[in-house]
Amino acid sequence: MNLFIKLLLNAIAVFVLAEILNGVSIDNYTTSLIVVIVLSLLNILVKPILIILTLPVTLLTLGLFLFIINALIVLIADRLIDGFAVDGIWSALLFSILLCVLQSLLHSFVKTDKK
Description:
Elements: H1 2-20, E1 24-26, H2 29-45, H3 47-53, H4 55-60, H5 65-80, E2 84-86, H6 89-108
Antiparallel strand pairs: 1-2
């Protein structure tokens, strides 16, 4: 149940950011839910590979290159999903940073069950 609530909150965050940012557009709320699921899958499957491949650059930039990797993940999701469009790398970078901040704020309101 907690996972379902977090997915819905993330979909709300994606929808709100798409409405606020000029470089990001989304068709409807259902598409934002699909975007959240695809971003989650890409973060699980593709992001570790990108991190390993770019490890020297990430170390040289003291981890700041991870922001670029997050933007690339958003651009990959843009290519995979009809109805979700990101104008370029800078829009994807801003979207990924704001999405991370907004997700942290929204998830702080969700109570976790400790057994």
